[in-house]
């Protein structure tokens, strides 16, 4: 890209490294940034640096936060008897967006997968076992993905918490809203049947 | 049922193919490495969801292209349906997406859109070859007859891979091993139950076909050999589950020692016997071939029952391996078939069927053969 000014091709090169960004998109973004007001470019720079400087893991729930412990862990209005276990910090945001869970979280940092070298000791499972009695948690809701690793991890968590006086539940499997019964596969449908609830 | 049109785009050596195969016997004639097997592979993939030979699914996508497409229109007793599969390269591997009547559907829902029995040269080793070949035979047949089977089998296979990786790690976590074993007992007992029921029906049908060909003696015996073995013929789900759970617990220390999963249906086998003795040990090559043909004819009958109409038959280079008499007997046993695809390198002998159409396959193209070649 010798025909481009050095800094411009450097910016394109950096943007191209980002996931889902190809060379064309990278060039479009770079030209946009070049033509944008200086304040906009500075705000973008600052936001990027701040993420690296200021965001860290919460020492209690291992979610992402600026202050430790995180806002959810500190919030006294949260129901401390319920703990939702998720694989990744992004899952916390997915559940928070529903605004229907008022308990707290515990982020495992992944799913158990010996094939990929992710053993039990690579995840925040020991910390979970400590938190449950220490915080007087009564219900642990395991909200891992309904795939093979998510299933194994959920069952493992249930097994390891079994000696403690705590109820362990799993998110219900269900039919997608707006979907059609006739298009659901047998396994989804039979799991949804198992998880049925009374209407009256 | 029959396929009325097949479209391939960047599938193996087919850059772009539009093919409207007729009913009856469709002979695909061509020199080696022209794309005869590739065409059968595409049809078979729509039926079973898997390639019958690719170790790496990325190999299905034409070299230098990112995406392959298979699309077929299938004429069925209940009306026409369309079935499609997109295979996309992802890193070193590939991802498949299945489409039925224009809608992307989960694989478990796609299964059954097209039904096919495939007969490959490697099937000749189902008798006498390693147990893995007999398990592959059962898996391909069962996945098409019973949609939930595929799901249980896929779930089981994933957990076995994780369990083996765990057993090979420095200090396997015992609770995780127990978790995997609980999951394996669940899906594994479903697999064993389904295989037991299927092999019972398969055995009855194969015995009958075989007796029709060679007389009642010696009788062809097909027996399922589950791992673990079940107490005499009790295949009720509860018993199978309990038996598998017990066997997993009993072999825990041996598995730790050998660092490998030793118990479960991934170690299943199927016994093939003639007059009560093992076919691969005592049968002549001719007897083994006859038994195998009876097994394939039985597979065909069971799939026809499950699908509610005769499935396609895909014969890749096997007919030429058989003598005329066996070939004739086999074709008669599947006479209700609406559509058969046969590959051959030489001009084929006429098959005992009415409509036979010959196509020439050359470097990923399909052309109707001139009348001389078809005679
Ligand atoms: N992914 C691929 N891309 C391009 N060509 C391929 C691919 N996979 C296989 N082929 C070609 O397909 C041909 C083999 O086709 P095949 O159907 O097995 O032959 P046959 O007619 O002998 O049955 C070979 O020429 C091989 O190079
Ligand atoms: Mg071939
Ligand atoms: Zn926190």
Q: Which compounds are bound in this model?
A: adenosine-5'-diphosphate, magnesium ion, zinc ion
Strand order of the largest sheet of chain A: 4-3-5-6
- Portion of residues in beta strands of chain B equals 25-35%
Chain oligomer state:
heterodimer
Main sheet of chain A, how many strands, which sense, barrel? 4 strands, parallel
Radius of gyration of chain B: 22 Å
Query: What is the CA-CA span between the terminal residues of chain A?
Result: 68 Å
What's the SSE blueprint?
The complex is a heterodimer of chains A (200) and B (375).
Chain A (H helix, E strand, L loop, with lengths): L5 H11 L6 H13 L2 H17 L1 E2 L6 E2 L5 H4 L7 E5 L2 H10 L5 E4 L17 H10 L4 E4 L5 H14 L5 E4 L15 H9 L6
Parallel strand pairs in A: 3-4, 3-5, 5-6
Antiparallel strand pairs in A: 1-2
Chain B lengths: L1 E10 L2 E6 L4 E6 L6 H13 L18 E10 L2 E12 L2 E8 L2 E3 L1 H4 L5 E4 L11 H15 L1 H22 L5 H41 L5 E6 L11 H14 L1 H7 L10 E6 L2 E2 H4 L2 H23 L4 E5 L7 H10 L5 E6 L11 E7 L2 E4 L2 H4 L1
Parallel strand pairs in B: 3-13, 3-14, 8-12, 12-13
Antiparallel strand pairs in B: 1-2, 1-4, 4-5, 5-6, 6-7, 9-10, 10-11, 14-15
Helix pairs in contact in B: 3-4, 4-5, 5-6, 5-9
Bound molecules: adenosine-5'-diphosphate (ADP), magnesium ion (MG) and zinc ion (ZN).
Quick overview:
Chain A has helices at 6-16, 23-35, 38-54, 71-74, 89-98, 125-134, 148-161, 186-194; strands spanning 56-57, 64-65, 82-86, 104-107, 139-142, 167-170. By secondary structure, chain A is an alpha/beta fold.
Key phrases:
heterodimer, A: 200 residues, alpha/beta, Helicase, Ruva Protein, domain 3, Dna Topoisomerase Vi A Subunit, Chain: A, domain 2, two-stranded antiparallel ribbon, 8 helices, 6 strands, globular, B: 375 residues, 6-stranded antiparallel sheet, 11 helices, 15 strands, binds magnesium ion
């Amino acid at each position: 890209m010798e025909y481009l000014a050095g800094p411009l091709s450097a910016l394109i090169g950096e943007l191209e490294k980002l996931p889902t960004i190809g060379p064309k998109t990278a060039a479009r973004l770079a030209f946009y940034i070049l033509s944008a007001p200086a304040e906009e470019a500075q705000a973008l720079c600052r936001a990027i640096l701040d993420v690296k400087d200021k965001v860290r893991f919460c020492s209690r729930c291992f979610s992402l936060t600026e202050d430790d412990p995180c806002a959810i862990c500190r919030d006294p209005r949260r129901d401390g008897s319920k703990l939702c276990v998720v694989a990744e910090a992004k899952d916390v945001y997915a559940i928070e967006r529903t605004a229907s869970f008022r308990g707290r979280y515990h982020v495992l940092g992944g799913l158990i997968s010996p094939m990929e070298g992710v053993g039990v000791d690579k995840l925040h499972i020991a910390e979970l076992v400590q938190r449950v009695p220490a915080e007087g948690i009564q219900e642990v809701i395991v909200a891992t993905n309904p795939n093979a690793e998510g299933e194994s991890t959920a069952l493992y968590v249930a097994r390891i918490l079994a000696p403690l006086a705590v109820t362990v539940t799993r998110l219900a499997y269900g039919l997608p809203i707006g979907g059609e019964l006739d298009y659901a596969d047998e396994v989804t449908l039979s799991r949804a049947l198992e998880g049925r609830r009374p209407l009256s | 049922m029959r396929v009325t049109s097949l479209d391939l785009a960047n599938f193996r050596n087919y850059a772009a193919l539009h093919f409207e195969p007729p009913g009856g016997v469709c002979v695909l004639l061509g020199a080696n490495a022209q794309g005869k097997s590739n065409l059968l592979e595409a049809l078979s993939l729509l039926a079973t969801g898997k390639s019958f030979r690719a170790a790496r699914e990325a190999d299905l996508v034409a070299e230098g292209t990112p995406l392959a497409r298979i699309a077929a229109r299938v004429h069925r007793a209940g009306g026409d349906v369309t079935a499609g599969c997109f295979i996309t390269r992802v890193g070193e591997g590939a991802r498949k997406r299945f489409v039925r009547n224009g809608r992307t559907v989960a694989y478990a829902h796609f299964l059954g859109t097209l039904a096919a029995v495939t007969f490959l040269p490697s099937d000749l080793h189902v008798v006498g070859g390693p147990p893995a070949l007999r398990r592959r035979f059962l898996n391909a047949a069962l996945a098409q007859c019973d949609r939930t089977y595929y799901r249980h089998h896929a779930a089981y296979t994933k957990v076995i891979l994780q369990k083996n990786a765990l057993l090979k790690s420095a200090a396997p976590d015992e609770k995780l091993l127990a978790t995997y074993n609980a999951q394996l007992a669940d899906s594994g007992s479903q697999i064993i139950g389904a295989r037991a029921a299927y092999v019972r029906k398969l055995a009855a049908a194969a015995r009958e076909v075989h007796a029709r060909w060679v007389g009642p003696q010696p009788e062809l015996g097909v027996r399922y050999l589950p791992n673990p073995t079940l107490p005499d013929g009790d295949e009720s789900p509860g018993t199978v589950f309990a038996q598998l759970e017990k066997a997993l617990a009993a072999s825990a220390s041996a598995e730790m020692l050998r660092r490998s999963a030793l118990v479960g249906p991934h170690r299943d086998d199927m016994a093939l016997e003639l007059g009560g003795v093992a076919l691969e040990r005592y049968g002549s090559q001719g007897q083994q071939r006859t038994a195998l043909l009876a097994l394939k004819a039985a597979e065909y009958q069971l799939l026809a029952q499950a699908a509610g109409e005769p499935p396609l038959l895909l014969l890749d280079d096997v007919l030429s391996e058989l003598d005329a008499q066996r070939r004739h007997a086999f074709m008669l046993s599947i006479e209700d078939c609406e559509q058969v695809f046969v590959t051959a390198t030489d001009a084929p002998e006429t098959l005992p069927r009415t409509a036979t159409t010959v196509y020439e396959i050359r470097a990923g193209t399909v052309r109707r053969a001139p009348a001389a070649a078809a005679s």
